Automatic annotation (TrEMBL):
Keyword hit for Metal-binding: no
Protein name listed in UniProt: Motile sperm domain-containing protein 1
Domain MSP: 16-143
Coiled-coil zones: none
Gene Ontology BP terms: negative regulation of transcription by RNA polymerase II; positive regulation of transcription by RNA polymerase II
Membrane topology term: Multi-pass membrane protein
Source organism of the structure: Cavia porcellus
Gene name, Swiss-Prot/TrEMBL: MOSPD1
Keyword Cytoplasm: no
Length: 213
């Protein structure tokens, strides 16, 4: 006998709530920011009813603080700041959106949105710019400290002149010695024993200098 599949019961408080944005920033010197919009999304196949709560309701006006959202739809919730004073600068307030099924009273999910009043958008941008500069300087200092040993090692390596002298000495030692008649190398490239001893001595000095760096 075929049994009808039952829909799993939704647990109170576990339903994800989708709201954008999750942070509201009001600027005292910019009246256009005194009105903010929260968008509540309902991606589910059943309708939701919502309610907006606030920790400081005397500072805000919430248009349509309660209502319903159809399945796979969204609604805009308008929030106005009505108490723009310097004593409220930097104070963090919180809004809580609670959602539930239309036929039930228990809250299936909730989401908190923070709200902050700042004195000036320009000052905020200046602070963010200063913060970015400090972070950049910190990263640059860390980069220099991290790669300083390697740069020293590279800078203290053998110079091109030292390498060139070493190659010349090796080539001199490979040339034939005076009196070697079977060599195909021209006679003017034949070196004496004393010349080769000098080349070997210089090559030894260069090798010791390279090993010490």
């Amino acid at each position: 006998m075929h049994q009808q599949k039952r829909q799993p019961e939704l647990v109170e408080g576990n339903l994800p709530v989708f709201v954008f944005p999750t942070e509201l920033i009001f600027y005292a010197d910019d009246q256009s920011t005194h009105k903010q919009v929260l968008t509540l999304y309902n991606p589910y196949e059943f309708a939701l009813k919502f309610k907006v709560l606030c920790t400081t309701p005397n500072k805000y006006v919430v248009v349509d603080a309660a209502g319903a959202v159809k399945p796979q739809c969204c609604v805009d919730i308008v929030i106005r700041h009505r108490d723009v004073r310097s004593c409220h600068y930097g104070v963090i307030d919180k809004f809580r959106l609670q959602v539930s099924e239309q036929s039930q009273r228990k809250a299936l999910g909730r989401k908190e949105v923070v709200a902050t009043l700042l004195p000036s958008a320009k000052e905020q941008q200046k602070e963010e710019e200063e913060k970015r500069i400090k972070e950049h300087l910190t990263e640059s200092l860390f980069f220099e400290q991290s790669f300083q040993p390697e740069s020293k090692a590279v800078s203290s390596g053998p110079s091109l002149l030292t390498v060139f002298l070493g190659v010349v000495c090796i080539a001199a030692l490979m040339l034939p010695t005076l009196g070697d008649m079977e060599s195909l190398v021209p006679l003017y490239l034949h070196l004496s024993v004393n010349q080769k001893l000098v080349a070997a001595y210089i090559l030894g000095l260069i090798t010791m200098a390279i090993l010490r760096t």
